[in-house]
């Protein structure tokens, strides 16, 4: 049950991107495969937005049960530049990576 709730939340966040002002956006590709202990999905739209993720349940049925997800999200800003964020979300938390994420200076 936790798996379905987490998957639904991640999917809703991915689809919550602000709409483009370039007119009607078409879905170019949409794939999904959801199983009892794993999932994967991907989509692309005509305005350059795309996302994909895959996840699986680690330690199923134990008190250390945890969902591990790996994915990416790409969008185009108003100036036409493409941006991509990749991430891992697991027992160590959400770990995003991308050229647009500020990096703290070395201590």
The total domain count is 1
The major pleated sheet works out as: 6 strands, antiparallel
Structural class, by secondary structure, is mainly beta
Helix fraction, binned, reads: 10-25%
Estimate the mean pLDDT confidence.
85
Using the CA coordinates, give the radius of gyration: 16 Å
Low-confidence spans: none
| Spatial shape | flat
Q: Can you count the helices?
A: 1
Write up this protein:
There is one protein chain. 13% of the residues lie in helices and 47% in strands. With 107 residues, it is mainly beta. The protein has one domain (2-97). Strands 1-2-3-4-5-6 form a 6-stranded antiparallel sheet, with helices on one face. β5 and β6 form a beta hairpin. The longest helix is centred in the first third of the chain and has 14 residues, at 2-15. The model has no long low-confidence stretch (mean pLDDT 85).
Compose a concise summary of this entry:
By secondary structure, the chain is mostly beta strands. The protein has one domain. 13% of the residues lie in helices and 47% in strands.
């Amino acid at each position: 049950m936790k798996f379905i709730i987490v998957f639904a939340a991640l999917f809703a966040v991915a689809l919550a991107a602000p709409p483009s002002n370039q007119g009607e956006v078409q879905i170019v590709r949409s794939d999904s495969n959801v199983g009892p202990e794993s999932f994967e999905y991907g989509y692309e739209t005509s305005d350059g937005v795309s996302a994909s993720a895959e996840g699986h349940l680690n330690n199923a049925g134990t008190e250390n049960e945890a969902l591990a997800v790996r994915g990416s999200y790409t969008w185009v800003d108003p100036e036409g530049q493409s941006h991509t964020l990749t991430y891992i979300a697991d027992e160590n938390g959400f770990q995003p990576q991308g050229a647009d994420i500020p990096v703290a200076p070395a201590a």
